[in-house]
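Field reference: sequence -> structure
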Amino acid sequence: METESGEHVEGFLAQTGEGSFHNVQLVGFGERREVFSRVKKELLSSVVASLQHRFQGVESHRVLLAASRLVDPREWPADQQELASYGSDHVNTVTEHFADVLDHMGCDRVKAKCIEWPSAKVIIKSLPQSLQQNAWQDFFVADDRRKTFCNLLLIVELILVMPLSTASVERGFSAMKRIKTDWRSNLSVNTLTQLLFISLEGLDLEDFNSMSVVDRWLKGLGVNTHTPFFPLTVLCDCVLRQMRSFLVSYY
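Structure field:
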């Protein structure tokens, strides 16, 4: 589009060739065609540069590159001597980048690098080629390996859940459009955040225990729900009065 105009621009230029557009005279447009072409080229160059910077390849991202080579056995060397020293720098890169998260999870980073990583490489590379790709899954399933490689598996799990696309962000925008409609435009930021969290991260209705929420709600109102023979009518009355108050204040 920098050298040739697109369909719509070409159509616009064709309709304004005589200095008018839909019978409206365009004063000085013919003299500004060069300015239009220059601005269009600058704009397109800026957009292309921004997109390239935003979606640059994994090869230019040090942490993503180290993470992908760490968990993919196809990237590991076949030679035993090369395999013995392979990956230590990748482990360092990933663990240093996620140091706060790993320390919070109780990961022994030194043990993961010096003890568990060399042993895991030997085990995975000794498997048939067809089984190596799903080897990490077996590490998570087997109880003995999950205990033996507990620190390394924290690192691997962190790598495997890293979002490599914007799908989760797009789902968030879709959920926000569903929740904050024209009729609910007065939702506060805090309420909208909580509703989005419930929609995106909450349990399914089949797994949701509503009674625990109602119990917590009533405790906030000062109602003792653990009193023996607590009447169900009182419970329903409290809930219905609170719902009515909410609906009146909302509408």
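Note: The mean pLDDT is 79.
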